[in-house]
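Can't attach files on this board, so I'm pasting raw text. These are the components:
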Amino acid sequence: MQVNTAKKTRIRQENLSIILGKAEQIFAEFGFKGATMQAIADAADLPKANLHYYFPTKLALYRQVIERIFTIWLEAADSFDTSATPQEALTRYIRKKMEISRAHPYGSKVWANEVIQGAPIIQDYLQTTLNEWTDTRIAVINRWIEQGLIDPIDPRHLLYMIWATTQHYADFSHQIATLNDNRPLDDAQWQRATRNVTDVILKGIGA
Amino acid sequence: MQVNTAKKTRIRQENLSIILGKAEQIFAEFGFKGATMQAIADAADLPKANLHYYFPTKLALYRQVIERIFTIWLEAADSFDTSATPQEALTRYIRKKMEISRAHPYGSKVWANEVIQGAPIIQDYLQTTLNEWTDTRIAVINRWIEQGLIDPIDPRHLLYMIWATTQHYADFSHQIATLNDNRPLDDAQWQRATRNVTDVILKGIGA
DNA sequence: GTCTATAGAATGATAGAC
DNA sequence: GTCTATCATTCTATAGAC
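---
Top answer:
Structure tokens for the assembled complex are below.
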């Protein structure tokens, strides 16, 4: 009994993991409406009906994909250390964001798709968690400005620039690869990109 | 006879214009697969069959939408004046890109969707026109570096940063509005954004 | 927990009257 | 040039055998 239950639990966990991973890819490529349960089922190598066994509706599956991505976003958000110097805090935050762009390009694309579409699902997160997080970081950046540690720039636009630039390497990876002899960036190129982004932004705000 | 022909031509032009405009919106919001001819027809306030009278297939309509957007892209590309100083060339280019983000947010989103999906339609443009344009600008930026006019940064990553940052204001306009008390940026805020982006990038590369 | 078969709605596209 | 009716296909979701 216990063995069977354990086995079933394991199978369940594996299938859930496979489905969520493939769903992330398909949603990234086609958006919510454009993605089909059939395409996700094919990618996961499962009959379509099995998807509905694990996730009652397409929307429920999409929500879980979004939840996972938001967890990763929170992880990056934490790396913006409000007690560090501007150099340390921003360098770490940018590096973390670049690592996420490389490790989770599909998640980033799903997020981008969501926002482009007016954030029908994640609007709650934007209004609450993201909004509050942004306010605390704006306060920190303003303190840096008062202390003369950086130039008097608009904190919001600094954050937008960091988000835009780092996420661009995930969301527009196809365009970047095309301009890189049709090859994805290699290790050295990712390092170089991270250093370039960090250097220009830090110097650009006088840090 | 001539009157009728003229009238028909006028109606045709008007309808084409309306359909293309609404199609841009719907494709921006739902991507190619997610957009439906019915949704575009409803937005244009026309029966679905009329869309197929003007555009044989959904793909043909999408291609024309993409063509229009690429024309705008070319316009921005021209504003990167290779004979100007770094300050002049980049200031003008960034301003132009910001103006486009404000004037054509849907076009920018369609473009973003296309690239996220692996550029199935615009791959030719990326390989030819964009690639060649990028090479010429990289050469110019490298000359600036040799002449000591700017810091020795990787030209590609400078271009990516400009694209990412300026297009972010169109593609992520919903998120930006959410963090702006649920209001789109007003005139003054757009000016401030443009100035911030320009200042940080120019100072960031030592121009 | 798996999978075939299928219901019921929506989709791209067309025919044909006006 | 417009628009209703409709076809063939595909979609989400479910029923029910194993």
